[in-house]
């Protein structure tokens, strides 16, 4: 295996797996998969951009160990997390044919990981899944922890499953072809980990993150996330903290039809708003939102809400965490410490307005 590979032991008490992080791990992917002893042909779910940039290396690594696989490249983008593409995957799995002892390899960003993971969770009631994330966002967040989903017309991620992978392989070199905007989007999630659980990580991000240190940052994020998921896989308690900035963020994404903003860009608006609202409520240390906005702007992320806050209220009311006139949201006590609290919509409208005008 490539030198300098770091391993994080992750998973839940029932489903343990390793997260492997290093450079050029794609070249060893075949050997890693062979260790899982998959039966029959494998399904390799990817997207067209990822396949164009890294397919050849991935193919030759799998072929070297004699692993027979079928690449299934989806059109890039959020639109592929759909029932239509899911049906296409089931067709492809049937044609392979993918057996219960086979393996689904999700090779791409969060879109491929989410739909590929959901297809694996549901094909024959569950076939082994290996996540090979290729965006920063997927490497620090979506490939770890077992949330899989597709979008339906009624809402984002409404059909999904908790389904832990057998292995996560993070080749940090794949990020070299990732567009700058996607790196920034992933940095929003990195900053989130610092904000909710590590003041040290937060501070370390205020300088330029060089390529060498990015691998350490990815490792730290995976360590934080896998610890949280191990303690609360099903999102009943501590895992909700990972949604810091996401309630407002999802509302922003939805307000603009999921097209204008990348997930991390929307989360950046959401985190800034949540910190400011927390300060207005007196639950967040004053100065926290300024520190957060400063760090987000260092990483090229905008924090000035692109619409009137009142336009987000209908989206907030439709949020999964909303019920009976209010929503459970994540707030910061200070940088590195987060908690949840329910806020009534009657109060939230005013708090949001104050947060942008104050
Ligand atoms: P994405 O998967 O759409 O990837 C972004 C773009 O980068 C795409 O155009 C893709 O083709 C391209 N790309 C990917 N890797 C590349 C590479 N190495 N080189 C060049 N181009 C590359 O977007 P994303 O930001 O990775 O993921 C967003 C999705 O993740 C959303 O659907 C969101 O809901 C989901 N998500 C899931 C979780 C979870 O826990 N399951 C957590 C956060 C986000
Ligand atoms: N991205 C939020 C979670 O995995 O719970």
Protein topology:
Blueprint: E1 6-11, E2 16-22, H1 29-35, E3 42-47, H2 48-64, E4 69-74, H3 83-95, E5 104-108, H4 110-122, E6 129-133, H5 136-142, E7 147-152, E8 155-162, E9 167-171, H6 180-197, H7 199-204, H8 211-231, H9 246-255, H10 263-281, H11 288-298, H12 313-317, E10 322-323, E11 326-334, E12 337-344, H13 345-357
Parallel strand pairs: 2-9, 3-4, 3-5, 5-6, 6-9
Antiparallel strand pairs: 1-2, 7-8, 10-11, 11-12
Helix pairs in contact: 1-2, 3-4, 5-6, 5-8, 6-8, 6-10, 9-10, 10-11, 10-13
The structure holds nicotinamide-adenine-dinucleotide (NAD) and glycine (GLY).
Nicotinamide-adenine-dinucleotide binds near residues 81, 109, 142 and 182.
Helix/strand order? EEHEHEHEHEHEEEHHHHHHHEEEH
What general form does the structure show? globular
Strand order of the largest sheet: 1-2-9-6-5-3-4
The largest sheet is: 7 strands, mixed
Radius of gyration: 20 Å
What do the pLDDT scores average to? 95
| Helix content bin | 40-55%
- Please give the number of β-strands: 12
Distance between the termini: 55 Å
What ligands does this structure carry? nicotinamide-adenine-dinucleotide, glycine
Instruction: Figure out the total of helices.
Output: 13
Strand content: 15-25%
Structural class: alpha/beta
Low-confidence stretches: none
